Predict the structure.
Amino acid sequence: MRALRVLDHLEEWFIAALMGVATVIVFVAVVHRYLSGMAIPGLQDWLLSLNVSWAQEATIYLFVWMAKFGAAYGVRTGIHVGVDVFINRMQSRTRARFVLFGLLAGVVFTGTIAALGARFVWDNGAHYAIFHAVGLDVEGLSTGPTTPDLEWPTWVIYLAIPLGSALMCFRFLQVAWSFSRTGELPKHDHAFVEGLDEVTPLDTAPAKP
Amino acid sequence: MNGIILFGLLVALMLTGMPVSIALGLTVLTFIFGFTEVPAQSVALKLFTGLENFEIMAIPFFILAGNFLTHGGVARRMIAFATSLVGHWNGGLGLAAVLACALFAALSGSSPACVIAIGSILMPAMVKAGFPPRFGAGVITTSGALGILIPPSIVMVMYSVSTNTSVGQLFIAGVVPGILLATMLGLTTWYRARKNNYPRQPRASWAERFTAFRKSVWGLLLIVVVMGGIYTGLFTPTEAAAMAAVYSFFIAVFVYRDLTIKDVPRVLLASANMSAMLLYIITNAVLFSFVLSNERIPQQLADWLITMGLGPVGFLLVVNLLLLIAGNVMEPSSIVLIMAPILFPVAVKLGVDPVHFGILIVVNMEVGMCHPPVGLNLYVASGITKMGITELTVAVWPWLLTMLVFLGLVTYWPTMSLWLPRLMAH
C-alpha cells in the first residue's frame, strides 16, 4: 500500500504547510502595516508600493483548506470526539455496533457533502472554466463569481469542500474497515502530555515544614 | 414542533457516540431534506461561507502559540517568578501554581495547555517538597481552568463567532473575573495549607525576585504584546494571535531553545490537527444555527419563556444548570457552539448583557472541565500525576466548590464582568 502511504504524507505536509504559511502571511502584513507608517527614507516608499490588502482574504482561504483537509487527517488520528460516555458502558459487542454506526454516519455525511459541494462548484464556474479550457461550447454557462481582493474565481477556493470531504469520506471508510476487522480505533489521547519525560523538575530550595 | 424534531434528532445522534460535528451535520441534512422548505441552495452556500470570518482564524493561531509555549521554557521561568513572590506563604508552591497558571493563562487560550505547562513542572516539585499529591493535583487541575477565563481564550472566540459579540470586549471583560477567581482559588489553597500545615518555601529577597522577573521577562512580554496590542487597537484579536504564534515560535526555538527547527513541522501538524477539528465543528454548528434561526426557534423559545413568567434571575439559573449538565457529556467548544445560538437571543430579550452572558458561559465551561466524566483538565492532570480519575475527583472538590461559589457571583453580579469594558469604552 505504497500509494496510501504517499497520500498520508502528502496530507500531513499539506496541512502543516498551510498552517505555517498563513501565520507568516498575517505576521508580514502586520509588520508591513506598521513599518510603512514609519518615515524611513527609501524603505517606506518601497513598502508603500507593495500591496498586502489581500493578506486577510488569503489567510481565510488557507485556513479553509487547512480545515477541510485537516478534518480528514483528524479522522485518521481519531481526534473527532463525540459523546461516548454512554456507549462506553455498554457490552463490547453492542458498543462495537454503535461505533461502526457512527463511522458509517461519517461516511454518509461527508459523502453527501462531497456530492453537494462538487455540484455547487460545477455550477459556479468550474463547468465554464473546464469547457473553455478544452475549447468546448460555453454558450450560456456562468463564469462564476470572483473573490473580492485576490480576484480569483471562487470555485477554485471552494474546491476545498468537495475534495476535502471526499478524502474525509475515504478516511472514514478506511477506519470503519480496519475497525470491523481488528476492532481497533485510532485514538487521539487528549490527555497525552508531550515532552513530559524530558521536562526537568523545578529546582526548589529545600522546604521547611 | 420543528424545534423538538431538530433537538431530538441531534440528541439521538449524539448519544450513539458519533463525532459531535457529524451529528450536527447529519441533523441539518435530515431536517432539510425531510421536514422543511429551506432552499438547499442557501444551505450549500452557508457550507462554503461558514468559515469565511477572519475572527475565527484566531483559533488556529492561539493553538499554535500554545503548542510552542507548552514546551517548558516559558512555563518554568514563570513558575520560578511566581514562587519567588508567594512561595513563603502557607502552601507556598500551591499558591505559586495558582499564580503561574494565571500568568500562563494570559498567554494561552486553552485550559489543558495551562495544566500541561504548569503541572508537568510544578507537580513533581510539589511532591518533592512534601505536599500530598492530592493537594497538588487539585490545585493544578482547577487553576488550569483559568486558561479560558483570563484572555486570550479560545472558548470566548467561539462564543463571539456564534453570537456576533465583539471578541475584544469579551477579552477585556474576562480580566477582572479571572483575577478574582485566581484570588479565590489562592485563598482556598492558603486556607487548606494552613490548616494542614503544609511546607513553605524560604522567603525570596527582592534581588532574587528581580532576577526571577528578568529571566521570565520574555514570557511576560508576550502578555504585553497580545493584550496590550488588542486593548490599544494596534492589532485585531486574530492579528494578535498570529503575532503570539510567531513570537512564541521565536522564544521556543531561538531564546529558550526548547525546540529545534526540526521539531517545527511536528508542532505545526499537531496544531493543524487540533484546529481543523475545532473548525470542522464550527462549520457544522454554523449550519445548525442557520437552520435554527431560519425556523425562528430561538425567538419562539424566548416568547414561550417570557409568557411562562421566567425573569432574568430564573433564566440565568436555568442556563447555569443546563450548561453544568451539558458539561458532563460534552467538550466546551461543542457546548458553546450548540447552546449559545439558542440561549443568546433569549438572554438578549430578557435584558442580559451579551458580554456578561459570554463570561457566564465561559465560567460554566471551566467547571465542566474540572469534573468527570469528560473534564479534559482532569484527564490531562491524571496523565501528569499518574493518579486515577476517581482519586482526582476527590482531590479537586475544595477548589471545585470555590468555583461554584464564583459561578454564583459571576451570574448575579454583572458589574464584575462589565465594569472594565465600560471603563475602557469611555
